[in-house]
Amino acid sequence: MDDPRVLSGPFWGELRVFLAVAKxxxxxxxxxxxxxxxxxxxxxVKRLQDVIGSQLFIATQNGIKLTExxxxxxxxxx
Length: 78
What we know:
Elements: H1 12-24, H2 27-34, H3 38-52, E1 57-60, E2 63-66, H4 68-77
Antiparallel strand pairs: 1-2
């Protein structure tokens, strides 16, 4: 990642939410799994996108999928 802050402590919560959304392919399902509200999940993903300066997900007819930048982030976390 270009910004070393992303993988540091202040963003662990957002990264955890990002990975849950990526795995569930749904903000709603991720919210249920994390026992959070869907707006909270969306806000945390938005905050992470703002820090990175790039969109991480794309909405499709079958749910959401990772952008190339989202794929890079997910692979750097695994």
